[in-house]
TrEMBL record:
Gene3D superfamilies: P-loop containing nucleotide triphosphate hydrolases (3.40.50.300). Residues 7-164 form the CobQ/CobB/MinD/ParA nucleotide binding domain. Pfam families: CbiA. The lineage of its organism: Bacteria, Pseudomonadati, Bacteroidota, Bacteroidia, Bacteroidales. InterPro entries: CobQ/CobB/MinD/ParA_Nub-bd_dom (IPR002586), DNA_Partitioning_ATPase (IPR050678), P-loop_NTPase (IPR027417). Coiled coil: none annotated. This is ParA family protein.
Amino acid sequence: MDESIIITFANQKGGVGKTTLCVTFANYLVKKGLPVIVIDCDSQESLAQRRESDLKRYPSGDTAIPYEVLPFSLNKEEALFGFIGNIRKTRCVAIFDSPGNLKQQGLVTLFANSDYIICPYHYDRTTIPSTATFIAFLQKLKNVMAGKMNARLILVPNRHDARVGRRSELMLWEETRETFSRYGLVTPKINSRADMERFCTLSDLDGQLEVTQAAFDTIFKEIFGHIEADTENG
Ligand SMILES: Nc1ncnc2c1ncn2[C@@H]1O[C@H](COP(=O)(O)OP(=O)(O)O)[C@@H](O)[C@H]1O
Ligand SMILES: [Mg+2]
């Protein structure tokens, strides 16, 4: 890795799993042996405080801390450029958790500087239109940035409940997947499971790897597939 890879979890819709998947994906990458840093840009969520409490709750003794969790306020837009510049130089996978509010200062700068935007969503009547609006927003932003914004969009159907859904709804969901596929990579679904209702910034909790594996493996291959191939060749 010559430069850090910047990944931002985003969707204007709240409650889709941005924060949960940000942390579980960080844990997943650490297991893969990659250097990771998590940047918490959502002041309402405070992953930085979560790390403190995780350390108290799960005392790990001598075990090394898997990755740093840094709080960063997007309000300091001027500082954001310098911050991202420094992150780039650290040669790690930098994962940003972002707030849902699109009016948040600095968010556009963050999107424009991301290599990947991972957008979780789920199938319900308000989340699908809201996610579609968000995808359209990113498209417009890309047009305005005229080649300066290169983020690849990855869409993650999360909180899937296989027990619900009439035939008509199931068809609608498949159509949504097809439509969204025109704008980015849509991963396999992540099921709605009690195992995902909690997370820990030190390691996966029981069952989380299994629930997220298919989706995370797809993301991993998308981001690092060519890097692995490069290493094998050289
Ligand atoms: N796959 C899942 N299964 C069950 N609950 C989930 C799943 N993903 C997220 N959740 C729950 O959904 C809620 C919203 O998740 P969160 O990560 O806080 O979303 P966001 O950051 O987008 O607002 C939380 O209560 C979380 O525990
Ligand atoms: Mg959140």
